[in-house]
């Protein structure tokens, strides 16, 4: 995650709780979709994380170059079949948040853009290890040792940006970002789900 453009990057945060014994099925779908995803343009980064102490849960965090690129992947036929299998067979519940990135701090570089006063904000901190961050839930990478992600919902733009700057200054923090959530929906809460 070395790019710093904040004006087009969209974050996707897919938190899923598996039915007991179904985690291997999820990763089988991931393996099947990997070559298909490689053919889609627009994905900048993906990593999967597990919440502390929850073997049945997973967070797939992705960065996309635009909403259009993300929508193209969402509409892919094979991806849609995997989504349907997840909903019907493998998932107990899930939550998806889609959000343009409005602030990104990494290696001294800063990219930021304005946001509406009533925006729903999500702070993401990418670190080597968890540290005290009020209101944050920590996740550990399932593929890279020493890679953690903290997520915290923030109500105030000024506080979110200040917290991101404070977090970015912590030892072991690679980057800190603030996202403005445009869609937040789940398996049973579909109001903000996109059209097929």
Topology of this protein?
Layout lengths: L9 E9 L4 H17 L3 E9 L5 E8 L2 H8 L2 H14 E16 L2 E4 L7 E8 L9 E5 L6 E7 L2 H12 L4 E9 L1 E4 L10
Antiparallel strand pairs: 1-3, 1-4, 2-3, 2-7, 4-5, 4-9, 4-10, 6-8, 6-9, 7-8
Give a written overview of the molecule.
The chain is of the alpha+beta class. It has one domain: Alpha-Beta Plaits, CATH 3.30.70.100. It has helices at residues 23-39, 67-74, 77-90, 157-168; strands spanning 10-18, 43-51, 57-64, 91-106, 109-112, 120-127, 137-141, 148-154, 173-181, 183-186. The chain has an eight-stranded antiparallel beta barrel with strand order 1-3-2-7-8-6-9-4, surrounded by four helices. Helix 1 (23-39) packs antiparallel against helix 3. The model is unreliable at 1-6 (pLDDT under 50).
The largest sheet is:
8 strands, antiparallel, barrel
Kindly report the spatial arrangement of strands forming the biggest sheet.
1-3-2-7-8-6-9-4
Using the CA coordinates, give the radius of gyration. Answer: 16 Å
Structural class: alpha+beta
Compute the average pLDDT: 91
């Amino acid at each position: 995650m070395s790019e710093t453009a904040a004006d087009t990057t969209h974050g996707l945060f897919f938190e899923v709780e598996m039915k007991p014994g179904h985690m291997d099925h999820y990763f089988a779908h991931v393996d099947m979709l990997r070559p298909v995803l490689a053919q889609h343009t627009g994905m900048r980064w993906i990593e999967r994380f597990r919440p502390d102490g929850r073997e049945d849960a997973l967070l797939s965090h992705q960065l996309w170059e635009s909403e259009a690129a993300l929508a193209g992947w969402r509409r892919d036929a094979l991806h849609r079949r995997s989504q349907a299998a997840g909903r019907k067979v493998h998932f107990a519940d899930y939550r998806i948040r889609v959000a343009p990135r409005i602030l990104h701090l990494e290696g001294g570089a800063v990219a930021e853009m304005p946001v509406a006063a009533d925006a729903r904000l999500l702070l993401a901190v990418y670190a080597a290890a968890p540290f005290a961050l009020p209101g944050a839930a920590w996740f550990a990478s399932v593929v890279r040792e020493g890679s953690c992600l903290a997520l915290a919902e923030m109500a105030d733009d000024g506080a979110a940006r200040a917290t991101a700057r404070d977090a970015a200054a912590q030892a072991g923090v690679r980057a800190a970002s603030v996202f403005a959530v445009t869609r937040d929906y789940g398996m049973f809460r579909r109001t903000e789900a996109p059209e097929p």
